[in-house]
Amino acid sequence: MSETLHIDWTRCDGRGLCTELLPTLLDRDDWGYPLAKRATNGDRSNVAVRPAHSEAAREAVYLCPKMALSLANQVAGFGQ
Amino acid sequence: MDNALWAFGRVSGIISLVLFTGTVLVGVLARSGRPLLVVPRFSVTLIHRNIALLATAFLVLHVGSLMLDSYAKLNVTDVVVPFLGPFRPFWQGLGTVAFDLVLAVVVTSLLRHRIGPRTFRAVHWFTYAMWPIALAHAIGNGTNGTSRWFLLLAAGSAAVVVGALAWRVSANFLETAKTRQGGLL
Ligand code: SF4
User: Fold this and answer.
1) InterPro entries annotated for this entry (chain B) (predicted)?
2) Which residue ranges have their beta carbon within 6 Å of ligand 1?
């Protein structure tokens, strides 16, 4: 089962911990903010996380200084 | 045994202060969003947390050993309520204030995912009050507080913390400061 990492850009301050922990999933823009490398339906704030990256994603959620990240189980779980 | 407790109480206080100085410095660095040479940002954050917890452990040992010591005879009230102690109540009270602030900062940090970023951040600001209060407590209350080597240590620590603060409030503090300023112009 794939998980989804949600970036709450209203909280994020672009400190770049998550882009270090998940370099294959996230890009960092010039202002420091993370962006999904592969957009799902044009949405770059919800990132599909395969099991191989699950632990790194959990660490990012835990360490994000702004508590701007969350993990959910299914892709369609957000923002209905 | 008593001598040992007394000596340990003093040494652990000094170690705790030095570790808290390190915590503040690494914390300011973490806040800037910059890595430390080859140390990545998430490690800087973990180092900040781990030094802080170590400093807190030494602080608990500092207070605990002086509670057991028959000379210092700290009691539970002294640990929580400032300025009531029999010996140099003002300077000891500063230690109590610093201890209470440390507890508040540590607890809100460990619970930060539950209490949310606002409370976490607001309480974390207490650190900037806690550190100078702890330093004043060490100088005013410590047996070695006014010896030359300790005053040198205190002056050196104060200099680096003030330096870190000056950097903290400077325009180029954030790693992305240049880009962000550019975006506004
Ligand atoms: S770790 Fe948090 S604050 Fe930093 S860039 Fe990622 S989401 Fe934003």
Assistant:
1) Fe3_Rdtase_TM_dom
2) A 7, 12-18, 34, 64-66, 68-69
